[in-house]
């Protein structure tokens, strides 16, 4: 989960799942293909069991998690997630605010550097 808020508040304004819904599958072939690709990652599926539906159109959405066990694994997805968090939830202009971000104890220096690069270059924040 991601906790969001402004300094001075006693608790976070939002607590949201750290996931995205970018994939929309419309055909049975795409669903079966995605299930084989994602075998073993059951928590990534909204629908844990897909029942084939004949002569009907249906939509299946797949969740994508940019963070796995506290470590960012998909930086493009993480950047899109942060964009959504900053603009949709906080409704903030990142150029006007400093950001405080937490990280896991075993985070690599490369991940820390890449997070700073995204925040400074993509969002033009004044400080981190």
What's the gist of this structure?
It comes from Probosciger aterrimus (Palm cockatoo). The protein has about 130 residues and is α+β, with helices and mostly antiparallel strands. The chain has helices at about 30-35, 75-90, 110-120, and strands at about 1-5, 15, 20-25, 60-65, 65-70, 70.
Can you put this structure into words, describing what you see?
The protein is α+β, with helices and mostly antiparallel strands. The protein has a domain at 69-128: ATPase, nucleotide binding domain (Nucleotidyltransferase, domain 5). 30% of the residues lie in helices and 16% in strands. It has 3 helices and 6 strands. The strands form 3 sheets. It has a two-stranded antiparallel sheet with strand order 1-2. The radius of gyration is 18 Å and the shape is globular. It comes from Probosciger aterrimus (Palm cockatoo). Pfam families: Actin (PF00022). This is ARP3B protein.
CATH class of the domain at 69-128, please?
Answer: Alpha Beta
Overall, the morphology is globular
Secondary-structure class:
alpha+beta
Beta-strand segment tally? 6
List keywords for this structure.
ARP3B protein, globular, alpha+beta, two-stranded antiparallel sheet, Actin, Actin/actin-like_CS, two-stranded antiparallel ribbon, ATPase_NBD, 128 residues, Nucleotidyltransferase, domain 5
């Amino acid at each position: 989960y991601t906790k969001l808020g402004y300094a001075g508040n006693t608790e976070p304004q939002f607590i949201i799942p750290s996931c995205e819904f970018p994939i929309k599958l419309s055909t049975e072939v795409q669903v079966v293909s995605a299930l084989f690709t994602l075998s073993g990652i059951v928590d990534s599926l909204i629908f844990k069991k897909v029942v084939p539906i004949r002569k009907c159109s249906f939509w299946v959405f797949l969740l994508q998690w940019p963070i796995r066990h506290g470590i960012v694994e998909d930086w493009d997805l993480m950047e899109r997630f942060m964009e959504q968090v900053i603009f949709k939830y906080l409704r903030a202009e990142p150029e006007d605010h400093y950001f405080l971000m937490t990280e896991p104890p075993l985070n690599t220096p490369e991940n820390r550097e890449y997070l700073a690069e995204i925040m400074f270059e993509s969002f033009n924040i004044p400080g981190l």
